Amino acid sequence: MTDFTPALPEAIECPLCLGKGELSRTEVLERLGMKDYARVAQLSAEEAIRLILKKEKDGEQARWAKFDAELARRVAEVTGKHSAESQKLQAEKSELAARLKGIEKSTTVTLDNARQEERLLPRKNCRSSSPP
Fold this sequence. Notes:
This protein has two helices and two strands; from the N terminus they run ββαα. It has about 130 residues and is mainly α. The longest helix is centred in the middle third of the chain and has 93 residues, at about 35-130.
């Protein structure tokens, strides 16, 4: 921003005291009942900028809060989905483990029966080959 007001001296002779003392421009204008419009404009601009910055900061905090809430919602959604899948797979694993134990048990029984039959087979062969 460029300043279009002419450069005014900060201290001027006081017309109220006919130059016997020096007062600042602001003090002279205040005694005359006038406002220093350049200073008022500057303060107004500073206040406007402060309000805009505060509003932007509040808006940013609101956006972050909204982002955090959305992130938490999505994480919970994905966690729930994966938890359900994990439970399903765990149940499937348990079922397969039970089936495997059943197969191992039946295989063991079958092997035991086959071994028993192999042991008995020579005895049968011996009985059938001997004359009665």
